Amino acid sequence: MRTSRILALAIGILLPLLETARRWGELWADPPAYLDDWLLGAFLIAGAWAAGRSERGVRLLAAAWGVALGMGYYSCVGQWQHWRAGAADPAPISSGAVLLIKCAGLAVAAWALVLTVRASSTMRRES
User: What is the span of the domain harbouring residue 98?
Assistant: First the structure.
């Protein structure tokens, strides 16, 4: 559970900041493109905080990881299409590098969700 909470805090803080930096020149051209990352970051932070307080909080963290997984999948597929089309990314790095980072984030979210669900089921068995 500790690993999942630390990852949620780290990603919850870094994701919105990095996404804002990535899209800095076009922030107001497509606000949902970065606002969803701010909402996800807030959800992950709230889940990490709540998971340290109760079993119900662990469920909130699992939900946050589930949302991260869904959003990450959609983002990876969109980035893959962007990369295949040869379109430039607003980031100062290549579209392919952005795709690899997003896929790595997706894998981390899946792993963290598994850790959280395992911890939740262990807590239930112990109570």
Answer: 2-126
Give the count of beta carbons closer than 10 Å to the beta carbon of residue 95. 19
- Residue 22 tokens read as 């990535």
**Residue 54, number of CB atoms within 10 A of its CB:** 11
Residues in CB range of 39: below 8 A, 6 or more apart: none
Length reported for the chain: 127
Number of domains in the chain: 1
Residue 60 token pair: 């909130």
- C-alpha torsion sign, points 104, 110, 114, 116: positive
> Rounded distance, CA 15 to CA 34, Å?
10
Indicate the helix (H) or strand (E) that contains 47.
helix 32-51
pTM of the model: 0.89
| pLDDT lower than 70: segments of the chain | 123-127
| Per-residue pLDDT tens over the stretch 80-101 | 999 999 998 888 899 999 999 9
SS3 percent helix, strand, coil of the chain, rounded to 5, is 85, 0, 15
CB 81 within 8 A of CB 30: no
